[in-house]
Amino acid sequence: DRDGRIWVGTYQGGLNLFDVASGSFQRFMHDPADNRSLSNNKVRAIYQDFNGALWVGTDGGLNEWRPASGGFARYQHQLADDASLSDSRVTTIMQDRGGVLWVGTYVGANSWNYLSDAFTYFQAEGTALRLSSNIVTAVNESRSGEIWAGTYGGGLNLIDETAGETRTFNRGNSDLPDDRVMAVHPDQLGQIWLGTRAGGLVQLDPNTEAFTVYAHDPENPASISSNAVTSILAERSGIVWVGTYGGGLNRFDANSGRFERFQHNPEDDNSLSSDRVLAIYRDRQGTLWIGTENGGLNAMDKDGESFRRFSKDETDPNSLSSDTAWLITETGDGSLWIGTNGGGLNQWKAEDRREERVRFAKLRRSDGLLSDSIQGMVEDSDGRLWLSSNRGLVQYNPVTGQMRYFSRSNGLRSNDFMFSAVHRTRSSRLLFGGIKGLLAFYPNHITVNRHEPDIALTAFDRNGPLTTRYSTDRGDETLNLDYSSDLITFSFSGLDYSAPTRNRYRYKLEGFDKEWSAPVEYDRATYTNLPAGSYTFRVQASNNDGIWNEKGASVGLVVVPPPWATAWAYGSYALAVLALILLFTRINAMKLAHAARKREELEKVVADRTRELAERNEELVSLNDQLKESSLTDTLTGLRNRRYLEEFIATEVAHARRQAGEMAENNNSESLDIAPALSFMMVDLDGFKAINDAHGHAAGDAALIQVRDVLQECCRKSDTVIRWGGDEFLIVSRNTSNRAAEKLAERIRTGLSECNYHLGNNEVGRLTGSIGFAVYPFSPLKPDMVSWEQVANIADQCTYIAKENGRDAWVGIYGTRETNAEDVERIPTDLEGLLGERKVGIRTSVYGKLRLTELRKMEQK
Description:
Elements: E1 6-9, E2 15-19, E3 24-28, E4 43-48, E5 54-58, E6 61-66, E7 71-75, E8 90-95, E9 101-105, E10 108-112, E11 120-122, E12 136-141, E13 147-151, E14 156-160, E15 165-169, E16 181-186, E17 192-196, E18 201-205, E19 210-214, E20 229-234, E21 239-244, E22 248-253, E23 258-262, E24 277-282, E25 288-292, E26 297-300, E27 307-310, E28 325-330, E29 336-340, E30 345-348, H1 350-354, E31 360-363, E32 376-379, E33 385-388, E34 393-396, E35 403-406, E36 417-424, E37 430-434, E38 437-441, E39 454-461, E40 464-470, E41 478-481, E42 487-495, E43 504-510, E44 524-528, E45 533-542, E46 548-559, H2 567-631, H3 642-666, E47 677-686, H4 688-695, H5 697-714, E48 720-725, E49 728-736, H6 738-754, E50 757-760, E51 763-765, E52 768-776, H7 788-804, E53 809-815, H8 821-826, H9 831-836, E54 840-844, H10 850-860
Parallel strand pairs: 41-46, 52-53
Antiparallel strand pairs: 1-2, 2-3, 4-5, 5-6, 6-7, 8-9, 9-10, 11-38, 12-13, 13-14, 14-15, 16-17, 17-18, 18-19, 20-21, 21-22, 22-23, 24-25, 25-26, 26-27, 28-29, 29-30, 30-31, 32-33, 33-34, 34-35, 36-37, 37-38, 39-40, 39-42, 42-44, 43-45, 45-46, 47-49, 47-52, 48-49, 50-51, 53-54
Helix pairs in contact: 4-5, 5-6
């Protein structure tokens, strides 16, 4: 061995350790009375592994020498355990480069992953601390450090590792009413609360071993609502929350012995969503969460009487992925995690919880989970989540998204775990209950497989294998593929046996593929009808823990072109084409000479006719432009008219929507109010009818022309002023905002009110404006919610509000993050309600008027 000692195995005399200095032997023989002795005296193999452990193969199984205890650990064939050795007669032992121990027997070969050493099992047989049943349905830890494990059919087990003993409580030796224990929860006073399949709630006093049973009494409404208890949460206050399957949630006061029931009421949306309660959890903010079957997730309100429901909604991708929410935990970063049956894992992120945004991120089997049915969930001391299922165990890092997988292939004795049988002890050891007993391990004791797997690569065509290459090979090899071969397949394998089903591959055919393939589990790639040329196929492999052999294996490939596609063939083609070109050129030259003469004769005629047509065409274009311009212009003021708006507004709206979409993606809340938008401002003149009535239409027309000058002076050159009709004007401003619209409205209001309007005959009139505006998009982060026509209508409604509140004023209504399409429909009828709900906001120059003053106060609140 590494220390220079000589170990000698004999056919009948067991194992011997030879001391070279003294020339004496220390014997290790089988002793039927000592289970730490050698399992059999016929020794057939001795092997020392990479870590220095000594393995001895005998006719009685595999033995591991443990010098600290002065004895051997035995590994033998068990008829009832298909994960045990295939036969107890061990003939040979070796360890591969990945650390996997291989054991040859009279009945086949066995591989043993070293992760097995990190996993400890408590079972009904074969372990020092035995359980009463291998089906572990509940597990927890008392304040003194003992492990309490509930089983399905075997009652309750107390595991005291310090004392090295196990105590069982069942119907045969105690007052336990049901041997199917579904929940175990120690409280702060040292009492053990048990939930049974059909025996109700049980309180165990570990000091006296006395059982108190709380069973359902149909005649007593203060009794527990059902005898099928699924989950328990005992709090410091002395209150015990009890979940039942079919009876809802119970609040038990141990002092009074009374149960208060919370059950589903189909007519009350604030009641518990389902009476099948599977999980109870209190988060760090004090919220009590209840997971149910077919009812989703519930949060008890602060009043302690009503519930807020979270369920699956097919129309909402952010809703819960399944209505069977049976596992709940809050991780250190404040995220709430919900394990479901059939819907995988759901995360309500901490930032979304703080902002009260109900948005569940999903992690499914398609994202890398072993199963969409999460049986157990717990966070370890490093912030990683451990998820058990019916397909094995997953370690998930929420920060990096990385997953590690554990199954029978790399250390577990079974892939099947029981629902909610999971616990993290005070020493950070994780416990998982399954159908093969109780699994216990320390996450930080599980080593990462650092072995870079060698790769075997074989190329095939339709006739069979062409060559096999290994990642350890040196030198290059090139395959020649005949043009008639339309298919080539590359088969590859990563030579790491820790968990071979978790090995992954990526490959690339250089000269054909631009990028490496995504990591895949299947082990072959096929290419058909490759163009003639030179290629190199490369493949890389990773082991079960994602360690890649990036050197990989490769093989060169040359696809031979067909005879008609060789260089000689292309040369012949080129000469033939050249001859044809020369012949065509000569014939064409003769035709061109004849055509040139004809062309000269026609050119003069065509030139004269073309000149005449060009002169007439210029005249028509000029008249058409004048006609189009007149159709887009108001004849009195020279401003644009409504038809012009229809011509140009589509382009402006598309530009504003695109800018709003980019702002929504960035979601920069500080810049929303200055986000570029399209402003619609309606100006309705106050007093114009009086001028018409008193001075005539000519005076009115003169006033409108002066109003045009005021509006153009107040607006930017990029703004479009439109005569909307009569004494109404519409101003469309590009790349503006609510704040800029307010300033423009105030300039226009001041300009209109301060202007002296000359009406002729030395008459001077006064006009003011009632101004309303709104911007598109109406809601900052929802550009497609409201059309520009609706925004223009809102601006028009604002002019009416300005008129109703004294005229000579401006009013603007704007949307908020909370605004939806239904809220826009409510603006004409329920503006005050929308302001109170913060669904819209209002800005105005009017103060002192009752209605708008009250609205302004509501907005400020």
